[in-house]
Amino acid sequence: MADIEPPPCPPPLLPPESLHHLCTHGYLGLNLPQHLESQYDHLLATADAFFALPAETKKLYRPGTGLGPEHRGPPSSATSTERGYTHIDGEKEYLTLRKSLTHLPPGIYDAAAPLWHDTAHLLYRILSDIGVYLGLEPTAWDSVVADSLEPSDGVYEEEDIRRPEIKEGDQGTLKDNVKDNEHSKTSCKRRRTHPRDDPSTLLRLFRYEPGGGGAEQHRDLGLLTLCVCWGKGLQVRPRRPPQPVAGSGESLPPVPWLDAPRVTVMTGDALHVLSSYRIPSAQHRVVVDAKDAAHAAAPDTDTANEPRGSDSVPTESRRSIVFALRPTTVGDIDLAAFGGSGSIEARELFYNIRRLRVNINANKETRAAMRAEYDKSRANGRQRDADAEPSPEKEESKDYEDTMVGELVGVA
C-alpha cells in the first residue's frame, strides 16, 4: 500500500468568513468549547472568592520585595502592573498571572493551570489559521509562542547559590575543593522557576468597581488576546471599508463603536508587525455603564434604596478574564518565516513595539505622566508638517496608527 503524505497543515479552526473578519477588523466573537467554558466559570468563581477578601489580605499578593514575612506577592518591582495583585481606587482591581504561576492566592493555580494550557493552544490554532490566510508555513509561529503554551508547575524556591568559601591556606587538593563545591550545589535550595524568567504572555483576572474602570481606545501589545466578560463594557471598532478618493473634501463619518461579544479574540500590535502590517490591531475600549455610574456617584439618592437587581441598579460588579498571548523575548525571530528578510532579536522587537505606550492599567498619576511623554514624542515627530491640512484618507489612517497601545490594558 502506497504511503499517504500527511496534510500540509492542520485543519482550519475558523470558518473562512470568520477568519476574514478577524484578519480585516482585528476582532471576532467565539463560542468556547464546553470544557473551556467550564474552566472559565471555575476560575471566575475562584477569583470572586479572592476579590471578596479584606483589602489587607489581598494586598499581601501585590508585587514587591522586602515587605515582611507575611508578603505573598511576586518578588518584583512594587510599581509593576505585570505581576501580582493591583488595586486602583475607584476603578478596578486585578490579579496578574505569568507562566510560572507562583505567588498566587489559594486555589488560583489549580483553576488557572488547565485554563492556561487550553487557551494558549486555542489561540495558537487561530494563529495557524492566520498564517494560512497570509500564505505562511503552518509552523511559522512555533518559535514565537512555544515558550508560552504550557503552564509551569507553580513551584517556586528562593534562589540560593552560595558556596563554601575556600580560604587561603586551607589544606586539601583542587580535587577535594571541586567535590566540596559540587556537594554545595546539590545541598543548596535551588529555584525551579523564577518570575523574572517568565515569558511576556499573561493571564489577568479583573473586577471592576461599580461605576468605574473604563479604558480609552487602545490596541493591545501582543499577538492575540482572548477576553471573556461578565457584564457589558468592552467595545470594538471595525475598520472602515476602502473608500474611493473623495473629490468633495467632505469628512467621512466616524466608524461606530460596537459592543463586543461576551467572548472575543482580538489581534495585537506584535501580530500587526510580524504580518508585515497586513493584519490590523484591534481597536477597542471599555465604557462604564451609565446606570452603574449614576448609582455609584449618587449613593444618597433614591436609586440607593432600590433593591439590587432592579432595572436601575446593577446586580454585581463587572468582571472578566483576559489571556494575552505575546511573542517570546528569547533568541532571534526569523523574519523570513513571515515574508520578510533577515532576523531580529526577539527582545528588541518586543520592546520596540512596547516603548512609548500608555499603560492604562496603571494608576491615574502614572497614566498622566506616560501620556505627557507620549504626547511630547508625537509633537516632536510631527513638527515638520504641523500646519499641513490632512485629507480625509490621511485622517483615517492617522486615527488608526496613533491609537494608544497599552501593555495589556483594561480590556476586561
From TrEMBL:
InterPro entries: IPNS-like_sf, Oxoglu/Fe-dep_dioxygenase_dom
The entry's keywords: Iron, Metal-binding, Oxidoreductase
Domain of life: Eukaryota
Biased composition (Basic and acidic residues): 160-170, 176-185, 372-401
Residue ranges of the region described as Disordered: 62-87, 155-198, 292-318, 372-412
Biased composition regions of type Low complexity, renumbered to the chain: 295-304
Record keyword Plastid present: no
Protein name in UniProt: Fe2OG dioxygenase domain-containing protein
Species this protein is from: Sporothrix epigloea
